[in-house]
Amino acid sequence: MLFTNKLFKQEIDQEVHDNLIRFSLGTFEDRALMKITIAKGKLKVDASYDLLKDITKIIAENIDKISIKGKVIQSKKKDEFDKEISGEELKELCEKNTFVLLNLTFGEYSVEVGKTIPKPGSALKKNFCKCILPITLLNNFTDLKDFKKLEISHTFVIEEVIVPEEYKNDFAQARIHAKRKGKLIRKIVLDKKESQKEIEFEA
Q1: Which pLDDT value is given to residue 28?
Q2: In terms of DSSP H, where are the helices of 62-170?
Q3: What count of other Cβ atoms lies within 10 Å of the Cβ of residue 181?
């Protein structure tokens, strides 16, 4: 499931927390961008970089074998791949590495991703990740149905950073373990009809 969907459902876990570490106090617009188009029985998904790992894991959990090409990065260690692996192996790559930049091919479906990690604070590309997927995966991205085109964008409003007492004198650990408290605002354009949802969270 996408971490933004988990936030809206108040299903807070470590993956949600890890996605919020990058945020300090303030308002962050145009995050977790996604456009879904349904045509000819297929699902076309364009998404920004901050949804890439979630999308890769969704695919990993729904296939047996897949061809991967690209790189994963953990700390300063980079590994490059061009081979076929199992869905479980792909899921493990996502869980063990901070950055996952893998093009995926499985049958008639594909995922193409950007080659470099966006710089912190830079504007996110709406189509950093371009996917052609089976229509059966739709409910992994949204609960909305019966549409041709869906666009979603998010604004994170971080009002408070709550640092556990044991990490208050360690800046690096404080950043990692602190909870972010604030609001998540979701803008939805469903077949040209706009709407907005908002929740409060602490994660």
Answers
A1: 96
A2: 87-96
A3: 16
Strands across the sheet containing 109-113: 77-86, 65-74, 99-106, 109-113, 129-134, 42-47, 26-39, 149-162, 179-190, 193-202
For residue 20, what are the CA distances in angstroms to 25, 41, 101, 107, 110?
Answer: 11, 34, 19, 34, 28
Cβ partners under 8 Å of residue 159, min gap 6: 25, 181, 182, 183
- Number of Cβ within a 10 Å radius of residue 83: 9
Q: Work out the mean pLDDT of the chain and round it to a whole number.
A: 95
Distance in angstroms (rounded) separating the CA atoms of residues 67 and 2: 22
pLDDT mean over 175-186:
96
pLDDT, position 120: 81
> Residues 36-46: pLDDT tens digits?
999 998 999 99
Global pTM reads: 0.94
Between CA 131 and CA 141, with CA 135 as vertex, the angle to 5 degrees is: 65
Q: Give the three-state DSSP class for 178.
A: coil
Mean pLDDT computed over 28-52 = 96
Sign of CA dihedral 47, 135, 198, 188: positive
